[in-house]
Design goal:
The chain is α/β, with parallel strands linked by helices and about 250 residues long. It folds into 2 domains: about 10-115; about 120-235, 60s Ribosomal Protein L30, Chain: A (2-Layer Sandwich). It is about 40% helix and about 15% strand. It is built from 7 helices and 6 strands, in the order ααββαβαααβαββ. The protein has helices at about 1-5, 10-50, 80-90, 105-110, 120-130, 150-160, 180-200; strands at about 55-60, 65-75, 100, 165-170, 205-210, 230-235. The strands form 2 sheets. Strands 1-2-3 form a 3-stranded mixed β-sheet. It has a 3-stranded mixed β-sheet with strand order 5-4-6. Helix 7 (about 180-200) links the parallel strand 4 and strand 5 (about 205-210). Mean pLDDT is about 75; it is low at about 20-30, about 105-120 and about 240-250.
């Protein structure tokens, strides 16, 4: 303690900020793990209830991150109706952001099992990337933090098969604070992400940036939960379109 007291004031502040950041990171990690553990229990119960013996629900990304967008695998001997019921039951669990089947079954059992190509597959890939790894912004700002550069590179790569389609970039906030401020900030953050993707080679004409504020919280979450602060992507058209004044970003 005497050594700490002898440090310059600016250094004490820096050390304090680092400790707060570390505590916040650990706390967020534990919270995410707890949420995923709860989803895993509910998903397992849903699999058993629908007769999905052998189906495994994996709430981790390929990089080992916990995710709300699980991958289903196994149950290869089950009929398609059962597999479909299991998938819908898991997807219906509050807090689950969407499910998809592992590609492994396609390679083992033939072309009829292929996941549909093109934009819809692209959308699922982006959802998986953003399930837990979030695009981070400076506090109360639309400035994207440098730590998100790698994630944005991966998002741009996943969206590249969607070139020629119309892609929505939607910003959302929690319900804490002034609604008008939240709405504006969610729109500005969506626009910042759009610009970042354009700088990575995606055509601006295909990206639609929108802000929804706190109007569309994640299903199953309290509207005030910070997890509602997010950027979502969706393919709203799979055919090339000629921009109209309504479609054109930033049109009045």
């Amino acid at each position: 303690m005497p050594m700490l007291l002898a440090l310059p004031a600016w250094l004490k502040v820096s050390i304090g900020a680092i400790l707060v950041a570390l505590i916040g990171t650990v706390s967020a990690s534990r919270t995410g793990d707890a949420i995923v553990a709860q989803l895993e229990r509910r998903a397992q119960a849903a699999v058993e209830q629908e007769g999905g013996k052998g189906i495994v629900v994996d709430f981790q990304t390929a990089q080992g991150w916990p995710t709300r967008h699980p991958t289903l695998s196994g149950g290869d001997d089950l009929d398609d109706d059962t597999r479909s019921r299991v998938a819908h039951a898991v997807a219906a669990i509050p807090g689950v952001g969407g499910v998809h089947w592992s590609h492994r079954r396609h390679h083992e059992r033939g072309a009829e099992e292929a996941v549909e190509p093109g934009p819809f597959h692209c959308e699922r890939d982006v959802e998986a990337l953003l399930a837990v790894r979030v695009i981070r912004f400076a506090e109360g700002s639309a400035q994207i933090e440098a730590a998100s550069d790698v994630l944005l590179d991966e998002v741009a790569g996943a969206l590249r098969p969607c070139r020629g389609s119309i892609i929505s970039v939607a910003g959302h906030s929690d319900a804490v604070g002034d609604a008008a401020v939240n709405l504006r900030l969610s729109r500005e953050r969506a626009e910042a992400v759009r610009d970042a993707l354009v700088s990575r080679g995606l055509p601006r004409a295909s990206l639609r940036a929108q802000g929804f504020g706190s109007a569309e919280p994640v299903e199953g979450l309290d509207p005030a939960d910070p997890a509602n602060r997010r950027i979502e992507f969706s393919v709203i058209s799979i055919a090339p379109q000629v921009p109209t004044p309504v479609d054109t970003p930033d049109a009045g």
